[in-house]
Design brief:
The protein has 109 residues and is mostly helical. It is built from six helices and two strands. The two termini are 24 Å apart.
Length: 109
């Protein structure tokens, strides 16, 4: 599944431009700009599955590092600080990974 099945290419492009600089990524701002925060729970879970490369049902830190590249192949990799901050913001149970429900909560909060 491609994230462009849920989000517009134009909105994704705008969101990616806002976080081109290293350490400028803010997940909440990204979700709003790309339009994900306005989508249904099911649509958000479709995007979650696109990010979950190994189909484990979780997004681990290594997958999160390449988060922006799931939206556009040419996008940059998140820095270690951005990745850790993103994980800490969404990982409510402290297990070091994001489950689908945690991801939905993060997007909609």
């Amino acid at each position: 599944m491609e994230v462009t099945n849920v989000l517009s290419v134009a909105d994704i492009s705008t969101a990616l431009k806002e976080c081109q600089a290293i350490n400028s990524f803010n997940c909440k701002k990204f979700f709003m700009t790309c339009g994900l925060s306005k989508k249904s729970t099911e649509e958000i879970k479709k995007v979650f599955r696109a990010i979950d490369d190994d189909d484990s049902g979780f997004i681990e830190e290594e997958e999160l590092k390449f988060f922006l590249q799931r939206f556009s192949a040419g996008a940059r990799v998140l820095s270690d600080n951005e990745t850790k901050s993103f994980m800490n913001t969404g990982d409510k149970d402290g297990d070091g990974k994001l489950g689908a429900d945690e991801f939905v909560h993060l997007v909609l909060s």
